[in-house]
Design goal:
This protein is an all-alpha fold. Helix content is 81%, strand content 0%. It has one domain. Helix 4 runs antiparallel to helix 5. The N and C termini lie far apart (81 Å). About 6% of the residues have low confidence.
Length: 131
């Protein structure tokens, strides 16, 4: 039994080493910076959505709208953003860099196009009415 356990552990270590699972990137590395950028974009989206909803801007995401009706704006946003940040953490920690880096770049670009720019435009238009 001991030989089987030792063999299984050695195989597991060999497999996990070859997959680079659980890497700890140092701050300042490109993939770490992309991970932080995506976290900041999630935080911005959550705060902008919360502010926009309270200013009367309708939410375009039907899934979020339904959860707002069921649980309220604050708890729904916390749940959805916590889930999104958890997925980002899993992507960052458990993918090889040649996959994780382009995926994090794509996610950041999507959030800039579909969240950052539209929310900035909406909130600025409400804060600075045109003359």
């Amino acid at each position: 039994m001991s030989a089987v356990t030792t063999r299984s552990r050695n195989e597991f270590v060999a497999v996990s080493d070859s997959l680079d699972v659980g890497r700890a990137e140092v701050p300042g590395s490109p993939i770490y910076d992309l991970f932080l950028l995506n976290i900041v974009l999630q935080l911005f989206d959550g705060m902008a959505t919360y502010t926009g909803i309270h200013m009367g801007v309708p939410e375009a995401n039907r899934l979020l709208c339904n959860s707002f009706a069921m649980w309220g704006v604050g708890p729904s946003l916390l749940l959805f953003k916590a889930f999104a940040c958890g997925v980002l953490l899993l992507l960052y920690r458990n993918t090889a860099e040649h996959i994780g880096r382009p995926a994090l770049m794509l996610l950041a670009a999507v959030y800039c196009v579909f969240s950052l720019f539209p929310w900035l435009a909406k909130l600025l238009s409400l804060a600075l009415p045109l003359c």
